[in-house]
Amino acid sequence: MKQMNWKELPHAGTILDAGNADGYETGSWRSFKPRWIEENCIQCLFCWIYCPDTSVTVKDEKMTGFDYKHCKGCGVCAVECPGKKGNKAIVMEEEGK
Amino acid sequence: MSTTTKEKPVTLKTLTNKQDLLSGGHRMCAGCGAPTVVRQVLLAIDEPVVISNATGCLEVSTCLFPYTAWRVPWMHSAFENAAATASGIETMYRALRKKGKIKKNMKFIAFGGDGGTYDIGFQALSGAMERGHQLLYICYDNGAYMNTGIQRSSATPFGANTTTCPAGSKIPGKLQKRKDLTRIMAAHNVAYAAQASPHNWRDLMTKVKKALASDGPAYMGIVAPCNRGWRTQTDDSILLSRLAVETCYWPLYEVENGTWTINYDPKDKKKPITEWIKPQGRFKHLFAPGNEWMLEKFQQIVDEDWESLKKLQGTFGR
Predict the structure, then answer these.
(1) Contact B31 A20 (CB under 8 A)
(2) Shortest CB distance from A52 goes to which of B14, B36, B233?
(3) Structurally, what CATH architecture does the domain formed by A25-94 represent?
(4) Residue A36 belongs to what H/E stretch?
């Protein structure tokens, strides 16, 4: 994301663009990456409600995957995932493998 | 007696249609419990909301000038005065509403960590509750000053190892038990005081709705595991908040206009406190030979608090 210079910065410590941290990439922090296995997913949406980084994407009331730009790879979703018949729908994999 | 209304049960499916009011890209640590708490709180609210934030992890990491993760009006002024700031905003809102300049029904929330609530912001919080502002104060409790490097606070549990009560040859971690702020807030005779945990999102959201619907000030303490300070894995924040409730270290209860209700009673399934403290590195020394008395004392503290809470429900319950 572009760094603002002193002329562009808003005055008096105000931020006028709400939620502009969205442009900041925290995905580079990740050493483990969640992978979604759709056939094991029961759409319980626990991953979505427990994600600290708003990084589980949902559409039409269904989980659709991950926002890897912001996901820090904490693994909370994988731990909380109930899966189907004991098979997790989210597994953590090492980055770059 | 109760002025709060019964809400229709919400489901996660319907909640996904709401916009997340805390964006990604904030710099809280991976696996932090606090942003999960904030997301759940904000998802529970239907009205426009204004937030005041005490200094702490949540404040410094979500709002790095000139970027903010908040999609709601948000203000930070200092460490100690989140409640006073929220009081001021709420008073201005009432004045403008009286003059007819604001027509909307708005809600006011102050967020603080346990340091900014139990210790530094306590006077401002107590004042705001006594003056009876229409606001909800939420303390996300991770049990130490995590932002500045894990110093003990009055919310730090007995026996925990922090940088200002380090476990070593002189002392075995913190020697005092924690302050029970939720009960102190209930003693202010506020309209609503409650304890919640992010693992039980439905309970947490119902409590936020009740707190905001109640006539008068409200307080909520929410446990927020911190993997840096608790010395745990990044992926077990929800697991640990669940265990905190199941061991009765962090009982889920609410006080509505003087009526005490325990929302979750594990009964004979109450787990020993060791299940909660075993995964946490800050309690590692409790399992060392010679420190058995600390485990016993910790269990005794938890049991006594739980028993006294049940007595309160028995005396002042429905």
Answers:
(1) no
(2) B36
(3) 2-Layer Sandwich (3.30)
(4) strand A32-36
